[in-house]
């Protein structure tokens, strides 16, 4: 009854992909953010699959994103804690990493990151 060109049996499809050296896996993602110069596309309930073939990884994201404008200065997360301009915006997670790695306080770590244009390795090198 359902013979025709509909779809292929998922188990058979998986076997064929394995024979061709293609691995697929579902990723239990809580959130996916795609940042462009003008906006952020935020997927909060997305289905994400990883396909690996010939050393290349491809991620497929399926869902309905929320679009957030990036040009108005209303950034989220670590970006919201920075100054209104992007000149001195340093990721707070990076500040914590540098502070823990070098044993300095967060203000000193932030200054080192700003002086090194946000480069973690250079900031750590400067403080060690």
Verbal overview:
By secondary structure, the chain is of the alpha+beta class. The chain folds into 2 domains: 9-70, Nascent polypeptide-associated complex domain (Ubiquitin Ligase Nedd4, Chain: W, Single Sheet); 73-128. Helix content is 30%, strand content 26%. The chain has helices spanning 10-19, 92-102, 106-115, 120-127, and strands at 22-27, 32-35, 39-43, 47-53, 56-62, 66-69. A hairpin with a 2-residue loop joins strand 4 and strand 5 (56-62). It starts with 9 loop residues before the first helix and ends with a helix. The model is unreliable at 74-86 (pLDDT under 50).
Which SSEs are present, and which pair or pack?
Blueprint: H1 10-19, E1 22-27, E2 32-35, E3 39-43, E4 47-53, E5 56-62, E6 66-69, H2 92-102, H3 106-115, H4 120-127
Antiparallel strand pairs: 1-4, 2-3, 3-6, 4-5
In percent, how helical is the residue content? 25-40%
- What series of H and E elements makes up the topology? HEEEEEEHHH
CATH architecture of the largest domain: Single Sheet
Tell me the domain tally: 2
Content of β-strand: 25-35%
Using brief descriptors, characterize the structure shown.
128 residues, alpha+beta, 2 domains, three-stranded antiparallel sheet
Short description:
By secondary structure, this protein is of the alpha+beta class. Helix content is 30%, strand content 26%.
